[in-house]
Amino acid sequence: MTVEGPFPSEGDVHLRIWLADLNFDYTTTAVVARNLIRDWERKHWCTIELIRDFIEGCRLLPRLPCERLFRGP
Predict the structure, then answer these.
(1) DSSP bridge partners of 53
(2) 46: helix, coil or strand?
(3) SS3 of 33, please?
(4) Which end of the chain is more exposed for a tag (fewer CB within 10 A), N or C?
(5) What is the pLDDT along the chain (73 residues), one digit of tens a residue?
(6) How many whole angstroms separate alpha carbon 43 and alpha carbon 25?
(7) What is Dmax (Cα atoms) for the chain?
(8) Smallest Cα–Cα separation from 29: which of 1, 61, 53?
């Protein structure tokens, strides 16, 4: 997955993180998701999915823990 591809420029997104056989669904901002994916590209420590078909349901998901750590560049 490349960050330069079709990616929302603002607003909340649904992010799914896979650790081993467990998946965790979160809501986060597009900026945080982009920065998290850039960090992930340096070292693949999990599997990340950006769920594009479920944007409206993001309000029901918990916020990404430590979201503020990925707000900067």
Answers:
(1) none
(2) coil
(3) helix
(4) C
(5) 444 455 566 788 889 999 888 999 999 988 999 899 888 888 887 888 887 765 565 678 899 998 998 887 6
(6) 21
(7) 31
(8) 61
